[in-house]
Structure formats: C-alpha cells, structure tokens
Amino acid sequence: MEKYLVTHWKNYIYIILNNVSKGYWYFSQFQYPEKKKEKWLLIDKKIIEKYQTNIGKDKRYRRKKKNLANYRFFRWENQCILLRTEGTQIREDDEKWKKLEGKEKILIIVGNTEFEIKNINEKFSVKLSKNTFKKIKAEIRNKLEKKLINQALFEIEKLSNLPNYQFLKKQKKELVKYFIEQHKIHLGNPGKALKDKLKKTIEKQVPLRKLPLFTQCV
Predict the structure, then answer these.
(1) Given 30, 43, 85, 210, which residue has the most CB atoms within 10 angstroms?
(2) Are 105 and 117 in contact (CB under 8 A)?
(3) Neighbouring residues of 29: CB distance < 8 A, sequence distance ≥ 6
(4) What's the CA dihedral at 120, 122, 126, 127 to 10 degrees?
(5) Do residues 115 and 127 lie in contact, with contact meaning Cβ atoms separated by under 8 Å?
(6) Domain ranges, ordered by start, for the chain
(7) Count of C-beta atoms within a 10 Å radius of residue 133
(8) How far apart are alpha carbons 186 and 146 in whole angstroms?
C-alpha cells in the first residue's frame, strides 16, 4: 500500500527532505487544477500505477541492484512531487526531470510563503525563498515607518510557525536583526525588553498537531 497523501505542509517538507537524503535526487513538480478536484484521487492512482511508486522495500532493493530507477510520489493539497533515483527509467517515463543540485531547487508554496529545498554540498537545506524573505522585510519596514509597531511585531510572531531547520533559523535571526535596525531608524532604540521579546519569539516553536504523516493509501 502506498502512503502518499500528506496531512500538513510541514510534513510535506519533512517527507521530501527524508527522501532526497536517501538518493531520490531527481524531481518533477506540478499542481492539480482546483476545477478538477473531484478527479484528484483518480489522477493520483494513475501516477502511482504508471511509476510503480507503491512497490515495497524488497522490490525497490532488487530494482536498485539491477540499476533500475525507483520512484516516489507525494501530494499535499494540490501540490504534487515525483521523486526518482539514479538508474534506468521505466519505458513510460515522460517527465521533465530536474536534479536537485547546483541552482536547482524544490519550491513549496504555503499561502503567500515560498520555501526552497536545495542541495548544498550534498546537504539538503530548507529556507524561505528570496522573494518571500524580501516581502517580509518590506512589511516590517513599511509598518515601522508608519509607527505601527504591533503590526510589525506580528510579522516576527508569524515566524514562530516556521520549522526550525538550520537555514530557516538563520533567516529568522536576520529578520529580527533587520527589525531592530528599522526600529532604530524610525522609532529609536527598541530597548532590552523588546529585544528579549523578539529573541524569545523566534526561538518559540509552534508545535505541529499530532497528525499522522499520511491520510491516503492506494
């Protein structure tokens, strides 16, 4: 039975990271159109059957020994990703694969927030996209320019909902540093109490509800 339908975007990031770290470096991403929502499960089934993503560990191992590619398929809401290992591809394979190395990245969109998964020296990182990072900085700057400190603080508070992967933690700290710089420019020195509050906010981790990784089997 294939577990593939992911319950939460944080689990989606986790499961992708888990598989690319096991050699599934090739990827193909796509989104299902909302107008065909009633057909999503049927499309899932066709993809799973086509790429044999529902085979067990023993068969995957035998395929690997024969230098045949193995495939995985995951979906969160309408976002889908096919992952593949090195090896001879199945005859029906017609995907435009990208390899997760160099400038290539897996992009995950959660509302207005974009996350990137990249391969940095064979270590896989998760971070906010440049576009999202710039937008957050712009929101902080604009709110502080208008003396809307509570709204600016809310931009920092939202960061506590992000996972604490290494590069994300670094970006959170950079955004707090930027907040303090902008506060000094527009409102004066923020003071120790506010600085401590900012630090505690980004260190706080909103827990993920105890959901299983997957909700659907085929």
Answers:
(1) 85
(2) yes
(3) 79, 80, 81, 82, 106, 107
(4) 0
(5) yes
(6) 3-128+213-217, 130-203
(7) 16
(8) 8
Decide if 29 contacts 107 (C-beta within 8 A). Answer: yes
Per-residue b/e over 40-55, b at no fewer than 16 CB within 10 Å?
Answer: beeebeebbebbbbbe
Tokens encoding 209: 């509800």
Per-residue pLDDT of the chain (218 residues; tens, 9 = 90+): 678 999 999 999 999 999 999 999 999 999 999 999 999 999 999 999 999 999 999 999 999 999 999 999 999 999 999 999 999 998 888 899 999 999 999 999 999 999 999 998 888 999 999 999 999 999 999 999 999 999 999 999 999 889 889 999 999 999 999 999 999 999 999 999 999 999 998 887 766 667 788 886 65
